[in-house]
Amino acid sequence: MFGIVNKTMVHWYECEPGIFFKKFEIVEDGMPRGTETILIVDDEQEVLRTLKPMLESLGYRVLTADSASEAIKTAKEHTETIHLLVTDVEMPVVSGAVLAKSLRLINPGLKCLFMSGYTSRGVAFFGMLENGEEFIHKPFSMRDLAAKIRTLLDFYLGAQGSRSSK
Hints:
Elements: H1 2-7, E1 10-16, E2 19-24, E3 37-41, H2 45-56, E4 61-65, H3 68-77, E5 84-88, H4 96-106, E6 111-116, H5 120-125, E7 134-137, H6 142-157
Parallel strand pairs: 3-4, 3-5, 5-6, 6-7
Antiparallel strand pairs: 1-2
């Protein structure tokens, strides 16, 4: 967790023991942005609490879930298109890969970006993902995640006017 917080340009300020405030750096000009809907799934609440405001600051609509069952419920209840699933590879009960297969039954056009503390070689070695699945190694920077998401969405969705160059 420290690595993600450290690389995402989030700073923790401690005022008194047990009390802290999050301060987000201003999003840099030229950082890739969008307006698509992204579902983030991770069993670690801190990851969700870090990534949600980060991606919202780039213009994305962000849904979160801390388990596969919650993600499936969210996907079924959400009336608009979910363009991208960003999920941890390894979670309790149901893996990210199994979750992606389930969500693709609900939303066949769903694109997926898997994240893990394991390297891409480790993930491939243990057979956690199928060939061709998109992957980002934790910890990652806000810029790296933004670029990976934008590249993935642009590749699959094409330039449909959802990209912003702010």
